[in-house]
């Protein structure tokens, strides 16, 4: 019985001490495990996430390998060009970040692009390797797709965009902001 009284007196103190610790842990995770738009020093360095360890439960990042082998991912952030003229093509070249092993295949591709505005006539395509294999992303500035699944994860992606139509006199350029691609892949083994 004395232990129960002790625990009853100790429990509010433990909860009061644990809640700030949980808030600190969440803040730490948000700051260190979230993918920022830029490096902490303001640079536009890409972030690499490689996970050779298999989780015991479902992955919160939804990158559990399809065939039981290891998986990984990389993120590449690149400033987008300004659209200065209609009927011209603009390309953002993403780099493959880190060491993607030979034989790694794409599981999912996520993208994000930002522009100051998206006027009528705007077209955007996310392309793998070259402009031969592309996914139309004109209507959605952020999302993910399985369209590129099974393709070589060591090949780079590009974002092709343009503004089709007739220019109005004095039309200002459209400011390109940050573009990002996140490639999740399965590795052989």
Give the termini distance in whole angstroms.
Answer: 56 Å
Shape: flat
Number of strands: 9
Mean pLDDT: 74
Radius of gyration: 22 Å
**Helix fraction bin:** 10-25%
Number of helices: 1
Largest sheet: 5 strands, antiparallel
For this structure, the quaternary state is single chain
The H/E string reads HEEEEEEEEE
Outline the structure in words.
- This protein is of the alpha+beta class and 189 residues long.
- It is 17% helix and 33% strand.
- It has one helix and nine strands, in the order H-E-E-E-E-E-E-E-E-E.
- The protein has one helix at 2-33; strands at residues 47-51, 71-79, 89-93, 105-115, 122-128, 133-136, 142-145, 157-163, 176-186.
- The strands form two sheets. It has a five-stranded antiparallel sheet with strand order 1-2-9-4-7, with no helix packed on it. Strands 3-8-5-6 form a four-stranded antiparallel sheet, with no helix packed on it.
- Strand 5 and strand 6 form a beta hairpin.
- It is flat, with a radius of gyration of 22 Å.
- It starts with a helix and ends with a strand.
- Mean pLDDT is 74; it is low at 13-65.
């Amino acid at each position: 019985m004395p232990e129960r009284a002790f625990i009853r007196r100790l429990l509010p103190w433990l909860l009061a001490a644990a809640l700030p610790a949980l808030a600190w842990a969440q803040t730490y995770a948000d700051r260190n495990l979230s993918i920022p738009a830029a490096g902490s020093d303001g640079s536009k360095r890409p972030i690499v996430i490689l996970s050779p360890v298999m989780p015991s439960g479902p992955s919160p990042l939804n990158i559990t390998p399809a065939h039981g082998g290891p998986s990984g991912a990389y993120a590449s952030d690149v400033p987008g060009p300004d659209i200065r003229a209609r009927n011209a093509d603009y390309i953002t070249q993403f780099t493959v970040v880190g060491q993607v092993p030979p034989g790694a295949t794409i599981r999912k591709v996520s993208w994000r692009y930002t522009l100051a505005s998206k006027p009528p006539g705007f077209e955007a395509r996310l392309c793998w390797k070259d402009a031969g294999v592309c996914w139309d992303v004109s209507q959605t500035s952020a999302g993910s797709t399985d369209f590129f699944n099974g393709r070589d994860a060591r090949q780079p992606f590009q974002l092709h965009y343009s503004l089709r139509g007739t220019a109005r006199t004095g039309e200002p350029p459209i400011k390109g902001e940050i573009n990002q691609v996140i490639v999740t892949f399965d590795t052989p083994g």
